[in-house]
Design brief:
Layout lengths: L11 H12 L9 H13 L6 H20 L6 H17 L6 E3 L1 H14 L8 H4 L6 E3 L20 E6 L10 E6 L11 E3 L14 E3 L5 E3 L4 E3 L20 E2 L5 E2 L18 E4 L2 E4 L6 E2 L17 E2 L4 H4 L11
Parallel strand pairs: 5-6
Antiparallel strand pairs: 1-2, 3-4, 7-8, 9-10, 11-12, 13-14
């Protein structure tokens, strides 16, 4: 984040919708299946007003979560779900009506269409799907205008983002919307730092360019030019730089591919996607039914952990709870 920027977590609205997507990602029978499909087609093709969105989201959740509740042997009542979900969605959306932020009807249509098309199974919804609901609101303030949060700042251009901050974090002056370049530096370009992706960027400066690891580049902090990171088998660490994003710098300062076995006692060691670090060794991920503490231990990527202990299992174990089955999905 640029110097002087106000640090903000993901907006509460996007976070709340992400929770809905994570907890309500399953389907059930619905007496309104035909009308739901029609609404989905309408949303995909047109606009959804802020007044329409809550009701349609309520149906997208409550018309689908019933089957998950039934499979988990939890009582489900459609009317109760709709009542509670409506109250929660209404509260969340009303709380977002702060100054200099406007609702985007096209963003509402994309959000609703994503829910109505993706809530078809009791499986996790992808991160890409969650992004469909991140554009519900947009800032209206131009660069240079006073602001109190980044959400109020309009996107300056296709190659820029905006943050709310001062040019000097220590000057105590007013914060204003400030442009932030998102254009990626190329090999050999002057650079100010290295970032993994645009969403994971902590070394950016408004007047400089950034090398992105997702592009296969890093910023050489001796020459301040973008270079290719070390490949597997090459030396790494210190002035030799980092390894490529799909490798790690091992205890011998050599870039190594993620391990399926062997020691992971050193924190920099990466285990392969099919493995995790267990008792300081990269070990195969656990099958459903195995005790777990974290989802990274499970082959199915879900640990239904409660109070630090749980079981590897299907995602529905978390979707259908006493709370979600009565519409408390936010």
């Amino acid at each position: 984040m640029p110097k002087g920027a106000i640090r903000e977590p993901l907006s509460w609205l996007a976070a709340a919708l992400a929770v809905l997507a994570a907890q309500a990602g399953c389907s059930g029978s619905s007496s309104d299946a035909g009308s739901s499909a029609a609404a989905g087609a309408s949303a995909a093709a047109g606009l959804v007003t802020l007044q329409e969105l809550p009701g349609r989201l309520v149906h997208a959740v409550c018309d689908n979560i019933g089957a998950c509740c039934a499979s988990a042997a939890i009582h489900f009542d459609l009317a109760t779900c709709q009542l509670n979900a409506a109250a929660r969605i209404d509260f969340v959306l009303q709380a977002g009506a702060y100054p200099n932020v406007e609702y985007d009807p096209a963003g509402g249509a994309r959000c609703l269409a994503a829910y109505e098309s993706l809530l078809t199974t009791c499986r996790p919804i992808s991160i890409e799907a969650l992004h469909a609901c991140e554009g519900l609101f947009r800032g209206t303030l131009r660069v240079g205008q006073p602001c109190s949060r980044a959400a109020q700042c309009a996107k300056p251009s296709s190659g820029e983002g905006a943050y709310c901050g001062s040019s000097d974090a220590s000057d105590g002056g007013p914060t204003v919307c400030t442009a932030f370049p998102t254009a990626h530096a190329q090999l050999g370009d002057h650079c100010a730092g290295t970032c993994d992706t645009e969403d994971r960027c902590s070394g950016s400066a408004a007047s400089n360019t950034i090398c992105f690891r997702q592009d296969g580049l890093e910023c050489d902090l001796l020459s301040f030019k973008c270079r290719k990171p070390a490949a597997i088998g090459q030396e790494c660490g210190g002035s030799r730089g980092m390894c490529a994003i799909d490798a790690f710098c091992n205890e011998n300062s050599i870039c190594e591919a993620p391990r399926t076995s062997g020691s992971c006692q050193i924190s920099d060691v990466k285990c392969a996607a099919t493995s995790y670090c267990k008792a300081a060794l990269c070990s195969p991920k656990e099958l459903d039914g195995t005790a777990c503490m974290y989802s990274e231990e499970c082959a199915g990527a879900h640990c239904s952990a409660l109070d630090g202990t749980g079981t590897c299992g299907v995602y529905v174990a978390k979707l259908a709870t006493a709370d979600t089955c009565i519409g408390h999905v936010f």
